[in-house]
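haha ok so turns out i had the wrong file open the whole time. this is the CORRECT one, sorry everyone. sequence first:
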Amino acid sequence: MPLHRCGGPAERETDTMDTFVDSSWYFLRFLDPHNTEKPFSHDAQRDNMPVDLYVGGKEHAVLHMFYARFIQHFLASLGLASHKEPFKRLVTQGMVMGETYRVKDSGRYLTKDEVDFSVKPPVERGTGSELVVTYEKMSKSKHNGIDPKDVLEEYGTDTTRLLMLANFAPSSQRNWSKDTFPGILNWQNRLWLTVSEFIHMRQDKELQADAPLSMEEMQEHKDFLFENRNFYLRGATYNFLYTNQLSKIPKEMMLTEEFEKSLAAQIIMLSPITPHLASELWAGFCSVATSPCTRKDVPLLEQRWPEIDSEFGLPLFCRIPGKDPCIVKVPRSILDSMTVDTATAHALANEEVQNCMVGKQLIRTHLQIQPGIGGNLSFRQLDLNRTSRFSPSTSPAALRRRSRSPAEPPEALTT
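then structure:
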């Protein structure tokens, strides 16, 4: 095509679409990547959309999610997408902050080599200037970045990953400090010792013959293991504490099936975070495991995620206006399939809930169930003991009805 000014030959640039447009529907293409006729088939997006969980940083997610939702609504308006919203849930991961050293007077950022740590608080080396020590977003200009290569060479990938994920929610900001590594290393060592003792106890026939626990004590510890295993399965982020519970159990309990199930659950839950350590532990564990619940023929990373036992009581939180939530324990086999009616029946059979309901009339209930986790049952009530501030003739409803009725002339003007 000729240029409009000089008339010379030119070729129109067609690659002008913003990259955000390309990245705003990639999740749809992933569902049907080999389709050569269309971007994605209707059946593929209908059966698999919307995306269950969107994980992204706050800065990126703000714009990308806006464009992705815009494109999805557009495709839905054309009948190409069955769902207007592309994502069910959003998790914005927290930022890892690095320690910074800034001269208080000038605001200049210093490297660690420029800081004198021999005094408390630290000062600028050479000048003795006072410093402001804070945690900020890692950047080269602030000299607070961490070289992953150095950390991995010193501690390994498993320990580093465990440090990043331990004791923090995925969306929480965390301050990077090497001072926390000793605690992580000690925890891994305790788990290693627990598995080693388990193997030794299972192999040593003399120790097995000397088990001094009575039947009552054995049952007490079995109940303890059952409760703790299911409790920590329910909140898997707490599985690090679970090791401490296992270490408190008498060695004789290592011969029981309940302990074996508990230790297997601990190792399996650990495997996504520390696959190398967990695989070593699993190999030793399987060498002496005897429970039919242990699938020794399946590699660790292909094991099913441990599930809460069907008879374990999960919390049903009953929320009544003006009262603290009442917790009713319901077996998982019942809670997972609860309806509003069955949940209400369980709640009203609880004495604590009954006491909170005295003098109140149930208006409506709302139920939310998270299978294997728990449930929330919300009540709306009318308090029968509360006297109305309005008489029947002056209530807001009566006044509204009166305002809508035809106006009557004043009595003095009537004929």
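The CA atoms of residues 365 and 379 lie 5 Å apart.
again sry for the mixup
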